[in-house]
Automatic annotation (TrEMBL):
Function (record text): Catalyzes two steps in the biosynthesis of coenzyme A. In the first step cysteine is conjugated to 4'-phosphopantothenate to form 4-phosphopantothenoylcysteine, in the latter compound is decarboxylated to form 4'-phosphopantotheine.
Protein name: Coenzyme A biosynthesis bifunctional protein CoaBC
NCBIfam families, A to Z: coaBC_dfp
UniProt similarity note: In the C-terminal section; belongs to the PPC synthetase family. In the N-terminal section; belongs to the HFCD (homo-oligomeric flavin containing Cys decarboxylase) superfamily.
Source organism: Brachybacterium huguangmaarense
Molecular function via GO: phosphopantothenate--cysteine ligase activity; phosphopantothenoylcysteine decarboxylase activity
Region (Phosphopantothenoylcysteine decarboxylase): 1-201
Length: 422
């Protein structure tokens, strides 16, 4: 996918920078937004300029930097920039900035812009743990979220000086993922992402399993986990409480998702079995190996001769999707109300890929099956092209484009099956 194909292409974006040490990381966010085709204007608070100067923001964004409501007064810039914005991202947001945003202050260019904006607003806090956990900050975040602002959870890790804990700015790629999810989400009349999954517990699997042959070899697939991560991020933007079960995913989690890392199909099955009793929605986006070695060699299998080739005995792995559907049938009170499966298919001489997917949908019995044709190879790409089937194999929706766009299309169907009407 090129920048021209990105959902951020041409989007008029304000990148607000608060006065914290993490301001330097915002430079990477600007780069990412610009690389995605967004038209970026950076608005730093006066305090943030002590950390990163205006020249840096102008060089990266290719736009003049405004910091005061008294600049370009003839153009009423403190009103126009917010009115024209199609996306606002504030990173980092300090405790002081969160408080001012909550109160609707407009005492500098950034807060005035945020007050004028009628578009998705993504706020990325970064501060010391004690500040983040203080009741005042907790309340400020809750109020902002209730107004439709997407406030990310900070990462845990090393902070300024010797301190460590929650309060670290998420990685730039995670911030960009949240921005994508916010821009592509369905919106309220006020321009904020619809929170139609508020409080809904969503369990998402992502990545691909590894089935060990010996200590150095394994059977695997090409899944990167990007679609599963995009689904988790989209669910978070829509208000869900997300648990992510990641199988060999070497990518940062969406801020706010609870993450469990697994390796094999058996480990994934165990994690899903333990977590699904607490989930309202299960989305099985992980690519699970259908077969695994019957046994794992304790030592690396050696070549003993030119013509000596070991024979691997394979066994079937658990069909986690079918097991989950069966568990709901046996005890609906302790199983997800909506179950979504994924099917990556190729065709053969006799059958088209979609027909394989229809048969799988009927056999699995999940509420939705998201099918994509992987004949040409789509693994690791930014875009996807899917067809959503119901349990009878009938097509209910199609979606193509960035994986964030696809994720919201899938979640739209989840919301319908939960009985919500936007």
């Amino acid at each position: 996918m090129t920048a021209a194909d990105s959902p951020l292409a041409g989007v008029r974006t304000v990148l607000g920078v608060g006065g914290g040490i993490a301001a330097y990381k915002a430079a990477h966010v600007v780069r990412g937004l610009v690389a995605s085709g967004a038209e970026v204007r950076v608005i730093p608070t006066p305090a943030s300029l002590a950390f990163v100067g205006a020249a840096t923001w102008e060089a990266l964004s290719h736009h003049e930097v405004l910091t005061s409501v008294f600049e370009h007064v003839d153009e009423v810039a403190h009103v126009r920039v917010g009115q024209d914005a199609e996306l606002v991202v504030i990173a980092p947001a300090t405790a002081d900035l969160l408080a001012r945003l909550r109160l609707g202050r407009a005492d500098d260019m950034l807060t005035a812009t945020a007050l004028m904006a009628r578009c998705p607003v993504v706020v990325v806090p970064a501060m010391h743990t004690e500040m983040w956990q203080h009741p005042a900050t907790v309340e400020n975040v809750a109020v902002l979220r209730s107004r439709g602002v997407t406030v990310l959870e900070p990462d845990s890790g090393r902070l300024t000086g010797p301190d460590s804990g929650p309060g670290r700015l998420p990685e730039p790629d995670a911030i960009l993922g949240a921005a994508l999810a916010a821009v592509t989400a369905p919106r309220t009349p006020a321009g904020a992402p619809v929170r139609d999954l508020e409080g809904v517990r969503v369990l998402v699997t992502a990545g691909g399993t590894h089935e060990q042959i010996d200590p150095v070899r394994f059977i695997a697939n090409h899944s990167s986990g990007r679609q599963g991560l995009a689904l988790a991020q989209a669910a978070l933007v829509r208000g869900a409480d997300v648990t992510l079960v990641a199988a060999n995913v070497d990518l940062p989690s969406p801020p706010g998702a609870r993450r469990l890392d697994v390796g094999s199909a058996a480990e994934l099955a165990e994690a899903v079995a333990a977590e699904r009793t607490r989930a309202d929605v299960l989305v099985m986006a992980a690519a699970v190996a259908d077969f695994a070695p019957a046994s794992r060699a304790a030592a690396k299998i050696k070549k003993t001769g030119e013509d000596d080739v070991p024979v691997l005995e394979l066994v079937r792995t658990e069909d986690i999707l079918r097991t989950s559907v069966g568990a709901r049938r046996d005890d609906p009170a302790t199983a997800p109300g909506v179950i979504v499966g994924f099917a990556a298919e190729t065709g053969d001489e006799a059958t088209a890929p979609i027909e394989h997917a229809r048969a799988k949908a009927r056999a699995k019995g999940a509420d939705l099956l998201v099918f994509n044709d992987v004949s040409a190879g789509v693994f690791g790409a930014a875009a996807n092209d899917v067809t959503v089937l119901d349990a009878s194999g009938e097509v209910v929706r199609s979606a193509a484009g960035d994986k964030s766009v696809v994720s919201h299309a899938v979640l739209d169907e989840v919301v319908r099956r939960r009985g919500h009407v936007r």
